Amino acid sequence: MAAACSIAPVSTYTATGFSCSVGPVTFSNFSVTPSTTGSGAVALSTFSPFTFDGTYGLNLSYSSSTGFSGGTSDVAWTYNVSGAPPLDDAYAALAGGVSGPSAATHLSEVLSNGMTLSLLGAGTTSVTFAPVSALHVIKDQHDLADSGSAAFSSIIGNGFSVVPEPSTWAMLLLGFAGLAYAGFRSNRRRPAWGD
After folding, report:
1. Half-sphere exposure (CA, 13 Å, Cβ side) for 9?
2. Among the CATH numbers 2.60.120, 2.115.10, 2.40.240, 2.60.40, which is that of 8-163?
3. Beta carbons of 151 and 144 less than 8 angstroms apart
4. How far apart are alpha carbons 100 and 195 in whole angstroms?
């Protein structure tokens, strides 16, 4: 079992053999490659784990800007992910924006099971798929702008949901049965109206 993911520099996560877990999801074999043209600039910062609403993931924090002289800035991020129980949903998020009419920020993600996620600006998206135990993920975040406009981005988030374990379903059903029984007993003890 991999150690728990923690907030750490990108260089920690991209070290050979590094892997970590967020809940039941394990991330490994990281590669993060920035590239720029023209006045574009990228500064990588940290990875940080997150969980919410049954989703387990990582945020990549960085600073990316095209500048106002025309250019591009790109962050390519690849990794492997596995889940026990199996993965059945992927989530992607992008924080960024544009200034001027000729600028854009995009995020695309391709999963090894053939599913894709994409954003044409800041926001979130998700996709549900047949359960799989492991995936290879290829992400590309791209800012582009002509002279006089600018695009920037700062966080890429990626998370996965897992298939609930049978014990989770059993506890849920047991809870509903308990509530139904309590309601039944409560109705039997009430005196008839007017008695």
Report:
1. 4
2. 2.60.120
3. yes
4. 76
Give the domain ranges of the chain.
8-163, 165-195
Provide the residue count of the chain: 195
Is the backbone of residue 17 left (phi > 0), alpha (psi -120 to 50) or beta? left
On the question of pLDDT at 172 being above 60, the answer is no
Q: Which is nearest to 22 in space by CA: 47, 50, 41, 46? A: 50
DSSP state of 67: -
Reported as a single tens digit per residue, the pLDDT across 56-108 is 999 999 999 999 989 999 999 999 999 989 999 999 999 999 999 899 999 99
What is the rounded CA–CA span in Å between residue 24 and residue 56? Answer: 8
Give the rounded distance of the alpha carbon of 182 from its chain centre: 40
